[in-house]
Design goal:
Number of helices: 3
Order of helices and strands: HHH
Mean pLDDT: 75
Low-confidence stretches: none
Largest sheet: none
Oligomer: single chain
Radius of gyration: 19 Å
Number of strands: 0
Helix content: over 70%
Length: about 90
């Protein structure tokens, strides 16, 4: 019975996370990255622009892919759990 509640709780949080990313976090990232990129381009600073854009892409990938990377059924979590079981 406890596993049913746990599974429902996790499923509910993944829906909330997806809603937050689509509704608030994603657009905020796009607006902030766009504003900073335009600021670097206006000042004609190409190197900080490229570095900032690369870091922004990495952060966006981590935020958008976090359910796939850190979900209960992901390879990363399963391998980490297996390593923890082998250590214990």
């Amino acid at each position: 019975m406890n596993t049913i509640y746990t599974a429902a709780y996790i499923a509910d949080l993944s829906g909330v996370w997806a809603s937050l990313v689509r509704g608030y976090i994603g657009p905020a990232i796009i607006i902030i990255v766009g504003a900073m990129s335009v600021a670097y381009l206006v000042k004609r600073q190409l190197r900080p622009f490229v570095v900032y854009l690369a870091l922004a892409i990495i952060v966006a990938v981590v935020i958008y892919a976090s359910p796939a990377l850190l979900g209960q059924q992901s390879t990363l979590v399963r391998n980490g759990g297996e390593i923890a079981r082998q250590i214990n």
